[in-house]
Design brief:
51% helix, 98 residues, 434 Repressor (Amino-terminal Domain), 5 helices, mainly alpha
């Protein structure tokens, strides 16, 4: 089965798309959503546009809370390209000092 590589940029756009759709469904302004999430309006606007590729966990949890969503629902299906299948995991050992 071919492996699909998801980029941080794609993931950020997808999360932003989900957030905007949910905010509009709830009839919240960006100002109201950002207030409920505990972030600035600029942060929220960037978040919805998908330009925030390095959002911190507290911000993502706040965004999910503001949207009345579980954080898992907001992030479902988004895996970084470094995630491996369980059979691909191996233990790396540090090299011995010489």
């Amino acid at each position: 089965m071919p492996r699909i590589v998801l980029t941080a940029e794609w993931a950020a756009r997808e999360v932003g798309r989900r957030a905007r759709a949910r905010r509009e469904l709830l009839k919240l302004s960006q100002e109201d959503a950002s207030y409920l999430a505990g972030v600035s309006v600029t942060w929220w606007s960037d978040f919805e546009r998908g330009t925030r590729t390095r959002a911190e966990l507290p911000q993502l949890l706040g965004a999910a809370h503001a949207l009345g969503m579980d954080s898992g629902e907001l992030l479902k299906g988004l895996l970084p390209d470094t995630v491996r299948e369980p059979g691909q995991v191996h233990q790396t050992r540090p090299r011995p000092r010489q």
